[in-house]
Design brief:
Blueprint: H1 6-18, E1 29-34, H2 35-45, H3 59-77, E2 83-87, H4 95-99, H5 117-127, E3 131-133, H6 140-153, E4 157-161, E5 175-179, E6 184-186, H7 188-195, H8 202-209, H9 224-234, H10 237-242, H11 250-258, H12 260-270, H13 292-301, H14 305-315, E7 324-327, E8 330-333, H15 337-344, H16 353-365, E9 375-376, H17 380-393, E10 395-402, E11 412-420, E12 423-428, H18 451-463, E13 468-471, H19 474-482, E14 491-493, H20 494-502, H21 510-518, H22 525-529, H23 547-574, H24 578-585, H25 588-598, E15 600-602, H26 604-629, H27 638-648, H28 668-673, H29 680-703, E16 716-717, E17 720-722, E18 732-734, H30 746-752, E19 755-756, E20 761-768, H31 771-779, H32 783-790, H33 795-804, H34 813-827, H35 832-839, H36 843-856, H37 858-874, E21 876-878, E22 884-886, H38 895-931, E23 938-943, E24 946-952, H39 956-968, E25 983-988, H40 991-994
Parallel strand pairs: 1-2, 1-4, 2-3, 4-5, 9-12, 10-13, 13-14
Antiparallel strand pairs: 5-6, 7-8, 10-11, 11-12, 15-16, 15-19, 17-18, 20-24, 20-25, 21-22, 23-24
């Protein structure tokens, strides 16, 4: 289902009005606004500014709207242009990059906080009812040049609104420039003052002088002044280059002769193209007055309250009320709004973040939660009223009730909404009576709206960018809605707010958050359903719940979510965690929704064959074990296992429980296998038991279980990713967990062969190479590691060489293996005991290895000591991108617990930074795939440091190039790592071959 908000329709109607052509001719005056120049001027004109309701950066949008409104008012009062358009750059790549690949290559990407404002600024132009023009492959300057020529050719006049020197070549009779910031006209005299030559010679001067900003090479050693003198003396560039041998100054003569071709290339770069085939005709730029509803609606959506009032007054209209938070019968402006209002008024931004936090918490707790006041919505009229109230408030808490924890399998049972604390409702859609039939018939069963009818009303609300949707784990609800053709846009997630603010301090589920922040215990499913003690939730689905209890349960979820948002959102600014939330948490939600929705194809036949093979292998291992034991033995019996190992074989390490039985913990066999004192038949028995255990686990966990997860409709497995489950920012996979399939064993790799590409497609695995070691080299500033990574050396061989004095060339594999174990072990705070078990060496030898490691790489010890000091002093550590991981119990008096937490704190900035890097890559990937025109490409899986894609055969190579570029530059521009990031990528028909 495709739905649009009234706001969208208003802007579309305004844009459609522009298609009514007004011919350009004698007497016409065309204003061409350099949109890209406006954006950057606006961005740097104001201090950082965010939208109060959701923290979205809007400083450039605000400044742009101010500048455009000022221009519209001033020109209407004086010159009254007949045509006007704002011209934008469509992208970084243009035809000039084909001429000279280094063109603008040195320019850094735009600031991260500016990127989400680009589309909003284009929306602003349309809201002002001004033509918005861009064209792939060309710069805005080329379009301005083309429009200018066409206007002058038919007798019109042109004003180019810009101060960009590159546009000064266009100045001529009929074409002038206007610098709106300085209210200054730029004509022929001003160009001569700038370049020393008239406008028609500007290109020649720029071709010689080059331009470091755009990476136009020019001729080395020749600047603007010298270039102007040369062009004045010889007339034009071609004449100068042809007569370069006549120049008396030796260096200047030699440079002009040597770099003549470079000057000609530079000319092709700076010369603006004035014959572009335009998609928007110049006649379509006719000036139209702003459409009041569209413009004021857009400004209200952006929460520019002062600017909205000012423009409304200028249009002779009534300003719409600002977005507000309703508390009982009163209406209050959001506490964060004060910061924006202060900036709009031009005063210092001195509103207290602490005051905003206190106000938010107070509003959230202002009313006690009273479930009896929630409304059950069963008529269209009442639902329309709730949707209207949500639009008026500008925000709505939203939650779905379904029949299944898997969003891909769940049937929608109902939806709950809240517009303010205590003001919530439940809309039942799929509740059934005792017989299993849907409620709502000719008998006396309770009524409910048809799902299609309700979604036709709610869908536009969810897709309206001017209304903020607030959810708790909104990823699930977004996927439920996506299956029904509805995209949730403009949202906040209270789970992720908590995760960004309080990672490590506790759970982030609704029940835990409600108790922690609101002092409220949420109703449980069992309470709502009326289950008897001990009954399972799975005994009944939500669809069977009586409507009165369903309303209490579901509407409470929405009510609590709204209150949590009020308590948590103001803390982002106060605790300086807005960047973490805005760049690492919230934008990842739609990416994960897309991945879960896509799923990955799995071949049942391969799994069946593997399951059969594993079963046969298990039987053979059981026979071997029975032979070694001397009788039939049940490996699954802890009692028999304990008696065999410690009573009969007398192996070391046995401990008895209080009941007198031998303790058989999960890693008992692993510990015994690492014990060098055990040999002979006992060691063979233990190793065979471990192999049997691995085989049975692979069979039960994967080859037997995975087919049950294959979706009947899609034929694909749709794993679920938890965004706020780990303390370090790593994603967790479940139902099924695809992150734990072993890749170091032959059998584990065989399981991956069952994950296949669709017909005509290929799977691509793009895997970060040693990303955590690279992060360690950066954060601990280890010269040897940085040098090795910079030179592309084998990092483990280099470490072994440093530690053991063994040449890298022809290094024994066992020596390298030990160094590898130490490299990765150090990251996880491995102890001598742990390293001894891993390498099957004595604890003394392992201790010596670790001691030598720190001697060779003292920076690592310094990092560890500094991190421990940091966590004990502040209770948290940070990743390189500002994510905080809290350890509230770090100063415990329990030495064992304190040591464990210290090791975790040492690892967290490394693992967390690596997790943040791949998050940043994932967030940028969808747009990168669109920009690369990879229409068939889909990102399917994230497995630790690896991303898995599916793409058409003929686009595989291009996808590999794009994925590598995005992943390898993911840390930038926020951070330039001290070591290069490398990604290995490969295409194949199945996951194993692609890895």
């Amino acid at each position: 289902m495709t739905t649009k908000s009234k706001q969208d329709h208003a802007i579309e109607q305004a844009s459609a009005a522009l298609s009514e052509n007004v011919p350009v001719g004698k007497g016409s005056h065309v204003y061409l606004i350099d949109g890209s120049g406006y954006i950057f001027r606006a961005f740097h004109a104001l201090p950082p500014l965010t939208r109060p309701s959701d923290g979205l950066p809007v400083g450039a949008v605000h400044g742009f709207c101010q500048m455009l409104w000022k221009l519209l008012r001033e020109t209407k009062a004086s010159e009254a242009p007949t045509h006007m358009g704002v011209i934008f750059d469509a992208g970084r790549e243009t035809f000039r990059n084909q001429i000279y690949p280094q063109y603008k290559a040195q320019r850094p990407p735009p600031p991260e906080e500016l990127i989400p404002q680009f589309p909003l600024i284009r929306d602003a132009v349309r809201a002002f009812n001004v033509a918005c023009v861009e064209l792939d492959g060309y710069e805005a300057d080329d379009l301005i040049a083309t429009y200018s020529r066409r206007a002058v050719d038919v007798g019109g006049d042109v004003t180019v609104v810009s101060s960009d020197k590159d546009l000064m070549q266009l100045v001529r009779p009929g074409v002038t420039m206007f610098d709106g910031m300085k209210s200054k006209r730029i004509g022929r005299d001003e160009v001569i003052e700038k370049f020393g030559v008239p406008p028609e010679k500007v290109v020649d001067v720029q071709s010689l002088a080059g331009d470091s900003v755009d990476n136009v090479p020019g001729v080395p050693g020749i600047g603007i002044k010298t270039a102007a003198e040369l062009i004045a003396a010889y007339g034009d560039l071609d004449t100068l280059l042809a007569r370069a041998g006549e120049i008396k100054q030796p260096k200047r003569r030699e440079k002009l002769i040597e770099f003549a071709e470079q000057a000609r290339i530079s000319r092709s770069l700076v010369l603006l193209k004035d014959d572009v085939v335009l998609e928007t005709a110049i006649d379509a730029l006719g000036v139209r007055d702003p459409q009041v509803d569209a413009l004021l609606g857009f400004l209200r959506m952006m929460e520019f309250n002062t600017l909205t009032k000012r423009i409304a007054e200028g249009l002779g209209a009534e300003a719409p009320p600002p977005l507000a938070v309703s508390v009982g019968a009163s209406v209050r402006v959001s506490p964060q709004q004060v910061n924006l209002d202060v900036i709009e008024a031009g005063a210092p931004q001195d509103a207290s973040p602490a005051a905003a936090v206190a106000a938010g918490a107070a509003i959230a707790r202002a009313q006690a939660i009273d479930r009896s006041k929630y409304e059950t919505v069963t008529t269209r009229a009442r639902l329309e009223e709730w949707v209207r109230r949500a639009r008026e408030a500008g925000r709505v808490a939203f939650d779905t009730e379904t029949t299944d924890l898997s969003a891909l399998d769940a049937e929608l049972v109902g939806i709950s909404l809240a517009v303010a604390p205590g003001e919530a409702c439940y809309i039942p859609l799929g509740h059934t009576g005792p017989s299993g039939d849907l409620f709502g018939g000719d008998d006396n069963r309770p009524q409910q709206l048809a799902a299609n009818e309700a979604l036709a009303l709610i869908g536009p609300l969810l897709e309206d960018p001017s209304v903020l949707k607030i959810g708790q784990n909104i990823k699930y609800d977004a996927l439920v809605m996506k299956r029904r053709g509805i995209e949730i846009v403009s949202f906040d997630d209270t789970m992720l707010l908590s995760y960004a603010l309080d990672g490590g301090r506790g759970q982030h589920g609704m029940d835990a958050l409600a108790e922690r922040h609101l002092g409220h215990m949420c109703m449980t499913f069992a309470q709502a359903m009326g289950h008897a003690p001990g009954a399972k939730k799975s005994d009944k689905t939500f669809a069977a719940m009586p409507l009165d209890k369903a309303t209490e349960y579901a509407a409470e979820d929405a009510d609590v979510t709204m209150r949590l948002w009020m308590a948590l959102k103001p803390r982002l600014a106060a605790e300086r965690m807005a960047t973490v939330y805005e760049t690492l948490e919230r934008p990842l939600v739609p990416v994960i929704v897309g991945m879960e929705h896509a799923g990955i194809k799995v071949d049942r036949d391969i799994l069946s064959r593997l399951s059969h093979a594993f079963a046969q292998r298990t039987v053979r291992l059981e026979e071997e074990i029975n032979g070694l034991v001397g009788h039939k033995f049940n490996l699954g019996s802890p009692k028999q296992l304990g008696e065999l190992l410690f009573d009969r074989l007398k192996l070391p390490g046995g401990k008895k429980t209080k009941s007198g039985q031998w303790e058989t913990r999960a890693n008992l066999l692993d510990d015994l296998a690492a014990n060098e004192e055990i040999d002979g038949d006992a060691r063979r028995l233990i190793n065979t038991m471990l192999e049997w255990r691995q085989m049975t686990k692979l069979k039960s966990t994967y080859t037997d279980a995975l087919p049950a997860y294959i979706n009947a409709e899609t034929g694909r497995i749709h794993t679920s990713y938890a965004l706020g489950a780990t303390t370090t920012g790593r994603l967790a996979s479940s139902d099924p967990n695809l992150q734990n399939i072993p890749i170091r064993t032959k059998e584990g790799r065989e399981i991956r062969t069952a994950f296949i590409a669709d017909k005509g497609m290929q799977l691509i695995s793009a895997d970060y190479s040693q990303i955590e070691l690279r992060v360690l080299a950066h954060v601990a500033d280890i010269p040897q590691l940085k040098k090795a990574f910079a030179e592309g050396l084998d990092i483990h061989a280099m470490t072994a060489s440093e530690m053991f004095g063994v040449p890298v060339k022809d290094m024994p594999s066992e020596v390298r293996r030990r160094a590898k174990a130490i490299n990765f072990g150090i990251i996880y705070g491995i102890s001598a005991f742990g390293l001894a078990n891993q390498l099957s060496i004595s604890r003394e030898e392992a201790s010596d290895y670790i001691k030598t490691y720190f001697q060779r790489f003292p920076g690592i010890r310094d990092y560890m000591d500094a991190t421990k000091k940091q966590v004990h002093a502040h209770g948290h550590v940070e990743t390189i991108f500002g994510r905080r991981i809290h350890y509230p119990e770090i100063n415990t008096k329990n030495p064992s617990m304190r040591g464990f937490l210290e090791r975790a704190a040492i690892n967290a900035p490394i693992q967390g930074s690596a997790a943040d890097i791949i998050r940043r890559a994932m967030i940028r990937m969808p747009a990168a795939l669109v920009d690369a025109k990879l229409s068939s490409a889909r990102m399917l899986l994230q497995v630790h440091d690896e991303l898995v894609f599916e793409v058409a055969d003929n686009e595989a190579s291009a996808l590999i190039t794009t994925a590598r570029r995005v992943m390898e530059t993911a840390a930038e521009p926020a951070l330039k790592l001290a070591v290069p990031i490398h990604v290995d990528a490969k295409a194949a028909n199945n996951w194993d071959e692609a890895h």
